[in-house]
Amino acid sequence: MEAIARIVLQNLNSFAQEEFAIIWKLKDDAQQMKSTVSAIKAVLQDAEANTNNLQISNWLEELKDVLYDADDLLEDMSIKALERQVVGGNRILRKVKIFFSHSNQFAYGFKLGHDMKAIRKRLDDIAKNKITLQLTNHPVETPIAYREHRQTYSFVSKDDVIGREEEKRLLKSYLLQTRVIVTDNVSVVPIVGFGGLGKTTLAQLVYNDDAVQRYFERKMWVCVSDEFDIKKIAQKMIVDDKNIDVEEVQQNLRDKILGKKFLLVLDDVWNEDRELWLKLKSLVMEGSKGSMIIVTTRSRTVAKIMGTHPPLFLNGLDLERSWKLFSQMAFDGGKEPNDRELLAIGREIVKKCAGVPLIIRTIGSLLYSRNLGRSDWLYFKEVEFSKIDQQKDKIFAILKLSYDHLPSFLKNCFAYCSLFPKGFEFDRKALIQLWIAEGFIQASNDTRGEEDVGHEYFMNLLSMSLFQDVSIDDCGDITTCKMHDLIHDLAQLVVGKEYAIFQGRKENIGHRTRYLSSHTSLHLANTSSSSYKLRTFIVLGEQLYGSKNLGRLDFHLPFVLSQKCLRVLILFGLDHATIPNSIQELKHLRYLDLSSNHLLVNLPPGITGLHNLQTLKLSKCFKLKELPSDINKSLRHLELNDCEELTCMPCGLGQLTNLQTLPLFILDHKSRSGDLSELSELNNLRGKLEIKWLDSLRENASMVEYAKVLLNKQHLQELELRWHNENRLQQMRNVPGGSPLFWVDEEPIAHRLLNEQEDNSIWLKDEKILNVLQPHHSIKRLVIDGYCGRSLPDWIGNLSSLLSLEISNCSVLKSLPEGIRNHKSLQKLCIYNCSLLERTCARNGWQRIANVPNVIVLPFSPSFLKYIN
Predict the structure, then answer these.
(1) Right CATH for 496-637 from 3.20.20.70, 3.80.10.10, 3.40.190.10, 3.40.630.30
(2) Average pLDDT for 650-662
(3) What 3-state class would DSSP assign to 2?
(4) What is the pLDDT of residues 301-350, one digit of tens each?
(5) 792/782 Cα distance (integer angstroms)
(6) Are 535 and 567 in contact (CB under 8 A)?
(7) Which parts of the chain span the membrane according to its record (predicted)?
């Protein structure tokens, strides 16, 4: 609530100073609205702390509704003003200019005045009621500080799992068959317990055990959750999200496990239909003897249906192990303070947690993050916990405490996660972009951008144990996370009427619904779509849910295009060859996700009219051929991963100076006129950048020699530089006895290429190109693929933050820079299909490179083995 009130105040303040407020004679209305909203905002904290009062709860719902309407109106006026500025600078746009003629301007101003006065009256009425409800003023909240050392990681550390040693030993004995006689090809071990006891954590701990990893040839993990869909489970097992039929999925699964000893974890199974289990079981019986399946479930019936071993029933932790876990979460470094009274209070709190690890972690995180002292802990125990003792569902009530103690700006971010299904893997960057699009991120008083503040919000929620199961990339950054099922239930409980999830049944979707997600085809019978004022509409398509109807965009487009207030539109996995040009009417749109559309060929030209668009996601649009040339200047994130048919980047891309995400940059290899200059001014790029078809620069190598287009991109962390030498690859494949995957006999070919290159100086051109592509010294991961130079530039030895260096398919490369031996940060060096380099290293001092401190050397080529054996 505070977030939307803050946005309205900002917009009112901005609008009151605009010339258009004067033209439309609305300046006084804007100032009075600002005063009213400010007075209401001051009592919000008190109101939200008393939502158990029905009158206050209804007052908040009314307030929320009018604030959303006010925000929509103010932003619409801002968009109209922006269009007027654009038209003023472009005399050609005759038709648009007519709209701003005196008569239309008067009509529009009259309508705005009417709408503003209607909203002002609603706000005045609400402001009067706050006096009746006796709401008091509270100071403005400030963001809680994120503590760097509280960061968690994707793997389950032995130090983080308390009190499950015996359960782990028993489960390992089943998997490694030290206690059982194996009679079936595939055995099933169920882990049973209610939510929060740590079933998934125990399975993760054993799954990642070194002995278990070595024992099984195939390891697979599938989160099943509510829907036991055999095709979807099989696709997750083979890691294939393509739209293929069930028969092909089954065959691919059989091919993957045939004769292999595999370990499969089916996490969070609810299905009690034995027939469905038998159908899935028939698909996996072709694994070799000793294959194992771990099933985590809350249901004893599921365990009885699926298990071939006695279930492993999890109980709560005893008091001492509970205290050990609590100390780890509540105190710095898990070290108990010297305050005996505080420790005594803490032990009383732990007793009330009933040995449930999720509860202990959540409460410990809450007490830690708020820096509470002895008196606060005592109040927490005697007042807040005493309320919980009177409730039926104590576990859920305790979890809600962690939500109640969040500041309002984090409550919005947490509640937004309810729109996604249980078991959903959140992409950290995407989640932050969604929060920004919806205005949930407060402006920072320092120089940080919204993405940086959003990262702080994310880390706060993570430190409160509201996110878990994070994954980490090679640069040490969090990429994804999940929510525990109980935490997801909590998120769905705390959202108001403005959130709705459509799942094919009769849902409570009313005129106050602002955030809607659909996990099935959306059919709202006998309801006018214009009666909705949605700000977010999310459809997660066929590749996640297996519904054929979800794969058809036709079901959703008429509804989508009627929602003129949309800020966020996600149409993931909906196959459709064209997007209507009328999408340009969604003027408020800030976040558009069309990913995994396997039929989309071109974007509509109207997409360039979305002047507020910040994020455009087109990953896995395999048939997308080009992007519009006049792409939006407001874009900050443009995702193009796996757009295989894309041949070049649009003209004018270099003008997008706010662009932070551009994982793929494609040089025009068909015209052989690649242009790096578009990258020159994009110095805000972050994360990963992959540049493809660098061989297209060979014709102009001398012209790009001094470009240095990457040197000032200090926020980039990963750089992938790729050449595509198709002639060389074809020569490799034509060698008698050669293999396109393992080039065991490539050394003669490399020598032949060296001789050929003496004539056309390809190696010299590539060396000039690579020298130009020197990144900022802060780069952490560097990939060089298909490069035909003889040596690497010296700047590689000066990348002081480099963690990972991968060199592949560089068949004429002879040596590594001498400076690489002085790298103190380097942790991984991969050399793949570089025959001359591998031979040189093996014969002339490979050990000098292999012994670089802290470096794991991974030479994958089979040819390398014959050199060092």
Answers:
(1) 3.80.10.10
(2) 91
(3) helix
(4) 899 999 988 899 988 899 999 999 999 888 887 888 888 888 999 999 89
(5) 12
(6) yes
(7) none
- What token pair was written down for 402? 């962690």
pLDDT at 543: 47
Which range has the worst mean pLDDT, 444-458, 587-601, 702-716? 702-716
Whether residue 82 is predicted with pLDDT greater than 80 in this model: the reply is no
In whole numbers, what is the pLDDT of the chain averaged over residues? Answer: 80
Residue-by-residue DSSP string for 776-799: -TT--EEEEES---SB--GGGGG-
- Distance between CA atoms of residues 179 and 105, nearest Å: 83
Q: Which residues of 362-377 are buried (b: 16+ CB within 10 A; e: fewer)?
A: bbbbbbbbeebeeeeb
Three-state SS string over 495-512 comes to CCCCEEEECCCCCCCCCC
CA distance 125 to 163: 57
CA distances from 816 to 278, 790, 796, 859 (A): 56, 10, 9, 14
Q: Residue 664: helix, strand or coil by DSSP? A: strand
For 647-869, CATH number out of 3.80.10, 3.30.1340, 3.30.70, 3.40.50 equals 3.80.10
Sorted by sequence, the CB contacts under 8 Å of residue 796 that are 6+ apart come out as: 782, 802, 805, 817, 819, 820
The angle that helices 726-734 and 746-760 make with each other, rounded to 10 degrees, is: 140
Q: Residue type for 834, please?
A: C
**∠ CA 347-353-359 to the nearest 5 degrees?**
120
Place of tokens 């609205």: 33
Q: What is the DSSP string of 680-693?
A: TT-TT--EEEEEE-
> Three-class SS of residue 533?
coil
Gap between the Cα atoms of 757 and 235, Å rounded: 46
Residue 746 has a pLDDT of 47
CATH number of 175-313: 3.40.50.300
How far is the C-alpha of 659 from the C-alpha of 637, rounded, in Å? 6
Report the CATH fold assignment for 408-491: Arc Repressor Mutant, subunit A (1.10.10)
Cα 110 from chain centroid (whole Å): 44
With 80 as the cut, is the pLDDT of residue 14 above it? no
Give the whole-angstrom CA distance, residue 815 versus residue 804: 18
What's the rounded Cα separation, in Å, for the pair 603 and 846?
A: 51
d(CA 661, CA 688): 8
**Of the candidate ranges 647-651, 742-746, 760-764, the one whose mean pLDDT is the lowest:** 742-746
- Report, as an integer, the average pLDDT of 114-133: 88
